[in-house]
C-alpha cells in the first residue's frame, strides 16, 4: 500500500467532502417532508376533537386525517430519488414515538368520560404528537 | 515510546482510489442507487460492479436489488462495519494531512 503524503491525504479528504456535498445536493427531502406533514396532520386531528360535535364530525376529521397521512405516505414513496438520506434509525424513532403518543392519546381521550371535548387534554396532546415528528424532520433534513 | 504512525490505521481495502470514492459517496448517504454512485465516481458499470463486489466481500457494502416501477434498480449502502472502517480511515488520513509525522 502506498502511504499518502500529507498533500495527497488532504486531496483524498477533499474528495470525500465533495462526495458528501454531492449526496446532500441530490438527496430527496422526502423523509423530513413526510414527518412534517404527519406531525401537523396529527396535531390538527387532535385539536379538532374538542370541537367535533357528534359522531359524523369525528368521523369526518378521521377521514381528513387519514387522507392527509395516505397522501404524505404516497409522496414519500414517490419522492425517493437516486440517493436516500434521512431514513436512519432516527426516522424510526420519530415514527415510534409518534405512534405511541397517538395510540395512547386516542385510547384515553375517547374512552375516559369527559375527555372527548376537553381542550385541556387534546391541546397538550396535539403538541406531544407533533413534537417527535417535527424533531425527527429537523434531524433528518438533507444538509 | 513513540506514537504509532497514522499510516498503520489506513485500511488497505478502502485505500484504493475507486474504492475510496465509492465508500466516500456511500458514507454520506443511507443508500444510493448504483447509477448515482457510478456517475459520481466516474467509472464504468463493470468497474463499479467489481469494486462493489470487493467491498461486499470485505463486509463493508451491502447490495439490495429493488424496483422503481417496473425498472430494476440496484441500491448500495455501507454496512455498520463499513461505516466504522471508513471513519477510521478518514481519521488516519486527517492525521497524515495534519502532519508532521516521520516517514518511519
Structural class per helix/strand content of chain A?
Answer: mainly alpha
Main sheet record of chain A: none
| CATH topology label of chain B | Arc Repressor Mutant, subunit A
Indicate the radius of gyration of chain A in whole angstroms: 21 Å
N/C terminus separation of chain A: 34 Å
Mean pLDDT of chain A: 87
CATH superfamily of chain B: Winged helix-like DNA-binding domain superfamily/Winged helix DNA-binding domain
Q: What characteristic shape of chain B results from the CA principal axes?
A: elongated
Report the helical percentage of chain A: over 70%
What is the tally of helical segments of chain A?
5
CATH architecture of chain B: Orthogonal Bundle
Average per-residue pLDDT of chain B, rounded, comes to 88
> Sheet with the most strands of chain B?
3 strands, antiparallel
Mind telling me the C-alpha Rg of chain B?
16 Å
DSSP E strands of chain A, number: 1
GO molecular function (chain B): DNA binding
Pfam families (chain B): HTH_34
Keywords (chain B): DNA-binding
Protein name (chain B): DNA-binding transcriptional regulator, MarR family
Amino acid at each position: 500500500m502506498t502511504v499518502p503524503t500529507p498533500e495527497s491525504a488532504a486531496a483524498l479528504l477533499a474528495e470525500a467532502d465533495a462526495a458528501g456535498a454531492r449526496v446532500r445536493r441530490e438527496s430527496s427531502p422526502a423523509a423530513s417532508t413526510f414527518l412534517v406533514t404527519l406531525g401537523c396532520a396529527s396535531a390538527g386531528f387532535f385539536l379538532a376533537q374538542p370541537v367535533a360535535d357528534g359522531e359524523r364530525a369525528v368521523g369526518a376529521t378521521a377521514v381528513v386525517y387519514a387522507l392527509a397521512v395516505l397522501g404524505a405516505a404516497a409522496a414519500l414513496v414517490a419522492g425517493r430519488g437516486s440517493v436516500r438520506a434521512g431514513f436512519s434509525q432516527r426516522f424510526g424513532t420519530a415514527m415510534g414515538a409518534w405512534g405511541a403518543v397517538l395510540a395512547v392519546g386516542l385510547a384515553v381521550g375517547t374512552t375516559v368520560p369527559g375527555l372527548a371535548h376537553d381542550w385541556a387534554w387534546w391541546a397538550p396532546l396535539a403538541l406531544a404528537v407533533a413534537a417527535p415528528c417535527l424533531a425527527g424532520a429537523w434531524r433528518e433534513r438533507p444538509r | 515510546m513513540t506514537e504509532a504512525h497514522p499510516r498503520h490505521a489506513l485500511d488497505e481495502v478502502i485505500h484504493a482510489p475507486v474504492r475510496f470514492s465509492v465508500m466516500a459517496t456511500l458514507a454520506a448517504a443511507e443508500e444510493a442507487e448504483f447509477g448515482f454512485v457510478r456517475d459520481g465516481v466516474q467509472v464504468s458499470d463493470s468497474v463499479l460492479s467489481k469494486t462493489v463486489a470487493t467491498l461486499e466481500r470485505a463486509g463493508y457494502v451491502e447490495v439490495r436489488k429493488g424496483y422503481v416501477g417496473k425498472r430494476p434498480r440496484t441500491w448500495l449502502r455501507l454496512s455498520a462495519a463499513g461505516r466504522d472502517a471508513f471513519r477510521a480511515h478518514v481519521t488516519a488520513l486527517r492525521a497524515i494531512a495534519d502532519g508532521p509525522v516521520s516517514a518511519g
